[in-house]
Amino acid sequence: xxxxxxxxxxxxxxxxxxxxxxxxxxxxxxxxxxxxxxxxxxxxxxxxxxxxxxxxxxxxxxxxxxxxxxxxxxxxxxxxxxxxxxxxxxxxxxxxxxxxxxxxxxxxxxxxxxxxxxxxxxxxxxxxxxxxxxxxxxxxxxxxxxxxxxxxxxxxxxxxxxxxxxxxxxxxxxxxxxxxxxxxxxxxxxxxxxxxxxxxxxxxxxxxxxxxxxxxxxxx
Length: 220
Fold this sequence. Notes:
Layout: H1 6-18, H2 23-40, H3 54-63, E1 74-78, H4 86-92, E2 100-104, H5 108-121, E3 125-128, H6 132-138, E4 145-148, H7 154-166, E5 170-175, H8 179-186, E6 190-191, E7 195-198, E8 206-210, E9 214-215
Helix pairs in contact: 1-3, 2-5, 6-7, 7-8
């Protein structure tokens, strides 16, 4: 079993105060953390310096999206990496009927970890080891929510997610202290009405909620 840093137990309690979960969800998250730490030793999924705050900085940061889209059943997470926020959301939605989270991760080793972790945990996640552009082009379903964390500037994220948002999905994108500059840059290319939600885990962070997206100059 992977040795868990002592500080991680305290961080776990802090995270659960920020984003409470059911006993069943917590059991799945604990299993995910054990698998994650074992994989972290072989592959840098997150910066090693953030391991002591894994629960608050990564898990609670992911879980906070659920309260913004409580009705959502189909999620698409672009650039899932080590599973944030997509696999964490799947852990929390395992008991909800018809829930599914599509994890899009082009790095084969990371995609392999996500698939094995989802299977072991029993999370309703489907891993797509393909480029984001290929996934959104070929995805014939309809998503309720599209997420991305630490993936790209907002203007680029909107370009990647636009095919899904056009079908009625809502975008939920983690952003930091540069969010105003990113919104200004994105507005040069896109028309949208963003909603900024303060992050529960980062005083300088915001969740940018996007809907009604159209490209500037588009007639549609």
